[in-house]
Specification:
Elements lengths: L2 H27 L2 H22 L5 H32 L10 H5 L4 H12 L6 H11 L5 H8 L3 H17 L10 H22 L3 E2 L5 H17 L4 H14 L25 H16 L6 H14 L8 H14 L3 H15 L1 H11 L10 H12 L3 H14 L1 E2 H16 L1
Helix pairs in contact: 1-2, 1-3, 1-5, 2-3, 6-8, 6-9, 7-8, 9-10, 9-11, 10-11, 11-12, 11-13, 12-13, 13-14, 14-15, 15-16, 16-17, 17-18, 18-19
Pfam families: DUF6596, Sigma70_r2, Sigma70_r4_2
GO molecular function: DNA binding; sigma factor activity
Family: Belongs to the sigma-70 factor family. ECF subfamily.
Length: about 425
């Protein structure tokens, strides 16, 4: 193999194996920053040795073995130092022998370690942006450059977020564990928020020149599916997976020939991925079979399922969608959910009904710079024939979005209102 082939192989192995290697090391050293450092050391060793020795039959196990040896060496050096200090301070002549670290590392399934890593990387002590960057780094195996490109920020910004996140976790003494009891539900919500944040940035990019970034959608789906395997009794995990599967099924239909956004009602449903829809329905069924009251992600997945079941836009059961949003609003009373409910009400019972709710949200401070508020209001006004008002709303929405294709689409809608 050439050097470039070796590098590609190492990159592929790292992407697949990095999460389990870092997770296993983190249980040993109790510090995810140090765990990643040790794993990276093993990666460097592979780049140095594999061109000469060849790629091993089990490259993941090779990396884990090298990283584990370095972890053990580091811990034993630290123990020798502490033992010397203890002898000096207390006049001790001997100390207990070092533990058998291989046994310590191999006592629990690697799946448990990965679940601990998920909960640690997504700890609410970190900002959502830091959680997302650290999760993509630790669990996705993405480089700083890849994360920066995905979120349209500079590499130094991402690097600083990751460094600060590791430092914050260490300073806060965040334990490397899966929380139990009441804390588990709160921490799980934080984990799901991070995964869905990653998915949404790919599904409807907040900035840049692309409307959809499939790499982020796929990474979020991968993380969600892993989480569903690790926590099979959590209905909200299955609900999030169902939601992402169904939404991802529309990817090919969401952009036109020039990359312009295509609204849901105008999409060619023949382009929807039936396999992803089926997987989404199966995940939703798993959530419902657990018998717990539906949470926010299960409800949103049920809404997405309504769209997926309609063969045409005209067959959409908007009354059921509006009813599901009513439940969701009671559970998660956010202005954004209210805005989505207004869309459903406008489709089910007429634009006047939707506009009434949207007008009540205009003064909401958190929606002041949210481009979808004037976008939705413009759509409702256009359906009512109030085209001049609609044009102004679409222009305002265009001025607020940071995504170039979306801005162009909104300006086109504004122009259409002016010509009518």
């Amino acid at each position: 193999m050439t050097a470039s082939d070796i590098h590609r192989t190492v990159d592929a192995v790292w992407r697949i194996e990095s999460a389990r290697i870092i997770a296993g090391l983190a249980r040993l050293v109790r510090d995810i920053g140090l765990a990643e450092e040790l794993a990276q050391d093993a990666l460097v060793a592979a780049l140095e040795q594999w061109p000469e020795s060849g790629v091993p039959d089990n490259p993941g196990a090779w990396l884990m073995a090298v990283a584990k040896r370095r972890a053990v060496d580091r811990i034993r050096r630290q123990e020798r130092l502490e033992r010397k200090l203890e002898e000096i301070g207390h006049g001790l002549e001997s100390a207990d022998p070092a533990p058998e670290f291989d046994a310590v590392l191999d006592t629990e399934p690697i799946e448990d370690d990965i679940l601990r890593l998920v909960f640690t990387a997504c700890h609410p002590v970190l900002s959502p942006q830091a959680r997302a960057a650290l999760t993509l780094r630790m669990l996705g195996g993405l480089s700083t450059e890849e994360i920066a490109r995905a979120f349209l920020v500079s590499e130094p910004t991402v690097a600083q977020r990751i460094v600060r996140a590791k430092r914050t976790l260490a300073e806060a003494g965040v334990p490397f564990e899966v929380p139990e009891g009441a804390e588990r539900a709160d921490r799980l919500a934080s984990v799901l928020e991070v995964v869905y944040l990653i998915f949404n940035e790919g599904y409807a990019a907040t900035g840049g020149t692309a409307w959809v970034r499939l790499d982020l959608c796929q990474e979020a789906l991968r993380l969600g599916r892993i989480l569903a395997e690790l926590a099979p009794q959590e209905a909200e995990v299955h609900g999030l997976v169902a939601l992402m599967e169904i939404q991802a099924s529309r990817s090919r239909a969401r952009t036109g020939p020039s990359g312009e956004p295509v609204q849901l009602l105008d999409q060619n449903r023949a382009l929807w991925d039936r396999l992803l829809i089926r997987r989404g329905f199966e995940a939703l069924l798993r959530a419902e079979k657990l018998g717990t009251p539906p949470g926010p992600y299960v409800l949103q997945a049920a809404i997405a399922a309504c769209h997926a079941q309609a063969r045409t836009a005209g067959e959409t059961d908007w009354a059921r969608i509006a009813a599901l949003y009513e439940v969701l609003v009671r559970l998660t009373p956010s202005p954004v959910v209210q805005l989505n409910r207004a869309v459903a009400l406008g489709m089910a019972y007429g634009p006047e009904r939707g506009l009434e709710l949207v007008d009540a949200l205009v003064a909401e401070p958190s929606l002041k710079n949210y481009h979808l508020l004037p976008s939705v209001r413009g759509d409702l006004l256009a359906r009512l024939g109030r085209l001049e008002e609609a044009r102004a709303e679409f222009e305002r929405a265009a001025s607020l979005t940071q995504n170039a294709p979306e801005r162009a689409a909104l300006l086109n809608r504004a122009a259409a209102c002016a010509l009518s």
